[in-house]
Give the backbone structure.
Amino acid sequence: MGREILRQIIHASGIFILVLGIFLNPQVLILLCIIILVLSEMVFILDKYHHIPIFSTILTSCKRQDDERGFLYFFIGIIATLYIFGFNMSIADAGILMLLLGDSASTIIGTRYGKHKLPFKSLKSFEGSLAFFLVSFLSALTLIPLLPALVGALVGSITEAYSPIDDNIPIPLISALAIAIVIYWL
């Protein structure tokens, strides 16, 4: 459990991207994310052959056995969301917050307290999905109105639970799409 908590803290620390978004336009933010992604990939490759002070320790202490590519999908999801929804940074940021905070909450709560498995997904729990929904809803409320935050959190929690691919890509995209639909068409 300790390893997973550290991993989720690192996951949630991606909030620095949203903070930088206050000062940088979406295109510069996308470029920065691409640079971070490339540098991260270089560190991952180098770490296989050489001990890199600080980085190797962090990677060893929080890497899942079955997932070496989570960071790649994480940045792809953020970059795609910024690219598609950069015209309204509140929407983009709300979707990204759901990935950063909601996904971390669902993993921590679901792993620790998850007793009631979701239908058709034995590795996911009702408790984890509820944590995703509540944290995503509350964090989105800091950026967008009540109804879009509610719909985005609900759609995001379903996406997190039932996505057939790594959820780091679809969570921010589908959540932001649901928010945009509510804001612009309802």
